[in-house]
Amino acid sequence: MAQRADSTRPGSLATYRKKRDFQQTPEPSGRKGKTAAAKSRMRFVVQMHRATRLHYDFRLEADGVLASWAVPKGPTLVPGDRRLAMHVEDHPLDYRDFEGNIPEKQYGAGNVIVWDRGTYTLAEGTDPADEIANGKIKFVLHGKKLNGEFTLVKIKAREGEHGEPWLLLKDRDEYADPNYDPADHPKSVKSGKTLQDVARDPRARTWQSKPSARHTAAPRRPRVKRDPLPQPKSLMLATLVAAPFDDPGWLFEIKWDGYRALCTIEENKLTVVSRNGLDMLRRFPDLQQLAGAFASVPVVVDGEIVSLD
After folding, report:
1. Cys-Cys crosslink for 90: which of 65, 117, 152, 191, Cβ 3.0 to 4.6 Å?
2. Sheet with strand 299-305: strands edge to edge
3. How far apart are CA 141 and CA 126, in angstroms?
4. Spatial CA neighbour of 90 closest among 70, 114, 74, 110
5. What is the pLDDT of residues 168-226, one digit of tens each?
6. Calpha distance 270→280 (Å, rounded)
């Protein structure tokens, strides 16, 4: 599963600076700070960020900067849950206190709160920057919401996939919680505000970031015809093999015992059908909530309907 090596070592703010015009933005220009010795506690922050999509910016202090990952579903305390974490540019240490609004048409436009913060120690290794460069870092968080041992591990990007994908995992310890959902804890640990509170507050601090292409208008894109969603003819089914195997190109999941179904959302219309083409919304009306879960984005999902009670 892990793909080690070939990661960029944290410590450079070149990409961060390239994306911002510091004559136009109050964001810090990003002098490297002094990081505490690896044996002592270093700082971390998780910022909840509603931009084009809601996500959580997970940041670890390393070599004088904040090594950063964008986690779409947010961190979890559920052991075994794999949370995609896209490695993004390093941020300056003083970014960890930012909470407020980024104006429209600016880089990262949206609302930000300090969802969690605290300190961390390494569970393995002696230098967090080296661990990240090697593609895996194990650490112990001491936060307001997140505590215990976690692992960030780099994985192989799929063919045609852009960016540097990692997985954020919660290790099994006394802080693990099988029922944990970050959405149940929406308030800032800094101010007690939610994203909605910050968005409505005219006094909220405002970041004025600029895209890297300065003083130039983006070329108007021609109108394109959207391709229709694919229409799968059958559901994906597991195949028996002679013996278990391990492969870095595969992710494995629990075999749940339920009803296999295909969920489609297109033009704000939701359908959920069984393997035999039966309408599962009649049997399970609560599944109507799926449209909101995907924010009505056109999508096809092949999954299992199960009851966890």
Report:
1. 65
2. 269-274, 259-266, 299-305
3. 16
4. 70
5. 999 999 999 999 999 999 999 999 999 999 998 866 766 555 444 444 444 454 555 56
6. 11
User: In a 3-state reduction of DSSP, which class is residue 133?
Assistant: helix
Q: What integer is the mean pLDDT of 281-304?
A: 80
Could you give the 3-state DSSP secondary structure of residue 191? Answer: coil
Distance from C-alpha of 227 to C-alpha of 232, rounded to nearest angstrom: 15
Q: Which residues pair with 155 in a beta bridge?
A: 2
State both tokens at 27: 């964001």
Q: Using alpha carbons only, what angle is made at residue 197 by residues 59 and 115, rounded to the nearest 5 degrees?
A: 20
Q: Is 218 exposed, middle or buried (0-12, 13-18, 19+ CB in 10 A)?
A: exposed
Beta strands 54-62 and 42-50, pairing class: antiparallel
Catalytic residues: 255
DSSP 9-50: PS---HHHHHT--TTT--S------PPPPTTS-EEEEEEEEE
Selection from 95, 119, 102 nearest residue 33 by Cα: 95
Grouping H, G, I as helix, E, B as strand and the rest as coil, residue 96 is helix
Q: What is the DSSP letter of 97?
A: G
The DSSP 8-state label assigned to residue 157 in this structure reads P
Residue 263 belongs to what H/E stretch? Answer: strand 259-266
Contact 154, 3 (CB under 8 A): yes
DSSP states of 199-230: HH-TTSEE-----SSTT-PPPPPPP-PPPPPP
Per-residue tokens: 285: 């009306």
60 within 8 A of 44, measured Cβ to Cβ? yes
Instruction: Look up residue 41 and give its two tokens.
Output: 């506690």
pLDDT at 12: 58
